[in-house]
Amino acid sequence: MPDTHLSHTDAGLAARPQALRGLLSGPGLSFIMEAHSGLSAKVVQEAGFAGIWASGLSMSAMLGLRDSNEASWTQVLDQLEFMADATRLPILVDGDTGYGNFNNVRRLVRKLGERGIAGVCIEDKLFPKTNSFIGEAQPLADVAEFCGRIRAGKDAQTTDAFCLVARVEALISGHGMAEALRRAEAYHHAGADAILIHSKKAHAGEITEFMGHWAGRCPVVIVPTMYHATPTDVFRRAGVSLVIWANHLLRASLTAMRDTARQIAGDESLRDVEGRVASVADIFGLMGNDELEEAGRRYLPDVVLPRAVVLAAGRGAGLGALTQDRPGCMVDVRGKPLLAHLVGVLNGAGVRDVTVVRGYCKDAVALPGIRTVDNDGWATSGEAASLAQAAGRLIGDSVVVYGDVMFRRYILDGMMAVSGDIVVAVDAAGVRTPHPRDLVRASRPYSPADMDDQPAVLASVGDGGTEGEWIGLLRATPAGSAVIRAELDAMRDDGTLDGADMPALLSRIAARHPVSVHYVTGHWLDVDTLLDLADARNFG
Ligand code: SPV
Ligand code: MG
């Protein structure tokens, strides 16, 4: 199981609060790192931190908001849920003031518990809060009232180990050390599990002084954002329990995002950025795509998605000089190879696994997302031999298509709906000069009233039939694919494979096994000649 779901058993929900409690009250100094999203939470875990600070400042900024309770507390809860799902780490939430009075705090604590959040820190200020580093002398909460918030929170916790940290703002607000200690003492007595003593001085003097007076009454948490130059050993020697690195992933990502955005805006290119940014493979890895694939193998039915074999070994000599250094399937049609259009239509119809049989100028046949097999004997063999090279891909639901055709996707969608193990698309319109070799003889002609509930049956291809022209496209069920493979084997055995084209193969199959005819009327073309190519360029 990845870190994507916490167990909702009582033990599962208690594990993370227990881990945070261990960081607060264990021996020595511990560290937790800010996160503000599922992604940043994963980064914190990957770096080896033992816990997460769900920073109010960072979570607000992540939403494009100010750290002034502009995000509602349920919106914060949603962010926390993503973070908790993304990691195994205990999360200490920056709960600001608790979003109101004692009543808001106890509701917050209950909801945090339900989401497996380990603890909350509430600060002794007033709702709506202002970030501690803005302005001077922010008003503080009344001590007794704030103690009520602490008691209500502790009474509402759903697991014993849940941690409530009380944050003392007296030093930041200019009320001095005595007031800070008075408040810390009161909050400790009200049931706080730890005190967060906050300071905005550029040195740690206030912190070490506080620690001296406090003398280990309960664990102390600090946020050294402003006194960042202080050596960590100073905190260790002073007896601090937990250091929060409060906002550094947000700030680091802001710098990186700005640099990258400016560079791309200026260059109008990705050239100098690629390699400096995380790869998409990195993102897939961090999000646990492997686990999803593995789970798919466990839970999805064993479905083999439809595959296609594209027969593209011939030169396409009718295109003249255009095929001097590439086969016809790679000739440009409106800015991309003819084959790319064909693969796009196949993909659009849900056929993602496309194998292209190459022959003439095979190295020129390269497109993202296709597999290739080679018919190196393409010059002396025919289409059946090419298909035989790809017989290993002809399993399950499959499509076989010539590499020089273009057709509207609805034709393939329509073929998928026709019953029969093997279905061929036949153009009945006769609007163009048909290739004699592809002429179809069928059990009945096309009728405009044809509703396809009784498909015509193929008799033969290429012996002068008048029912239409095979457009170079067939589809087969798993059983149909097996029939085609068996026929290819039989042809190899009887020595006819190398000399056979697809019409010969189809005629042989039709003599033994019903092949359904799906009639179409136009909306496809093949590119044999320069005239065809001109048509293809208008085939929008
Ligand atoms: C936060 O990270 O939102 C904090 C810490 O509250 S600080 O901004 O340093 O006050
Ligand atoms: Mg905050």
Overview of this structure, please?
By secondary structure, the protein is α/β, with parallel strands linked by helices. It contains 18 helices and 21 strands. The chain has helices at 10-25, 38-46, 56-62, 73-86, 102-114, 143-156, 176-190, 205-214, 232-238, 248-267, 280-286, 289-299, 338-348, 383-389, 409-417, 478-494, 502-512, 530-537, and strands at 30-35, 52-54, 91-94, 119-123, 163-168, 194-197, 220-222, 242-245, 307-312, 332-333, 336-337, 353-358, 370-374, 398-402, 405-407, 422-427, 439-442, 456-461, 468-476, 515-520, 524-526. An eight-stranded parallel barrel has the order 1-2-3-4-5-6-7-8, surrounded by nine helices. It has a five-stranded mixed barrel with strand order 16-19-17-18-20. The longest helix is centred in the middle third of the chain and has 20 residues, at 248-267. The radius of gyration is 35 Å and the shape is elongated. Residues 4-8 have low confidence and may be disordered. The structure holds sulfopyruvate and magnesium ion (MG). Residues 55-57, 94 line the site of magnesium ion.
List the helices and strands and how they pair.
Layout: H1 10-25, E1 30-35, H2 38-46, E2 52-54, H3 56-62, H4 73-86, E3 91-94, H5 102-114, E4 119-123, H6 143-156, E5 163-168, H7 176-190, E6 194-197, H8 205-214, E7 220-222, H9 232-238, E8 242-245, H10 248-267, H11 280-286, H12 289-299, E9 307-312, E10 332-333, E11 336-337, H13 338-348, E12 353-358, E13 370-374, H14 383-389, E14 398-402, E15 405-407, H15 409-417, E16 422-427, E17 439-442, E18 456-461, E19 468-476, H16 478-494, H17 502-512, E20 515-520, E21 524-526, H18 530-537
Parallel strand pairs: 1-2, 1-8, 2-3, 3-4, 4-5, 5-6, 6-7, 7-8, 9-12, 9-14, 12-13, 16-20
Antiparallel strand pairs: 10-11, 14-19, 15-21, 16-19, 17-18, 17-19, 18-20
Helix pairs in contact: 2-4, 5-6, 6-7
The structure holds sulfopyruvate and magnesium ion.
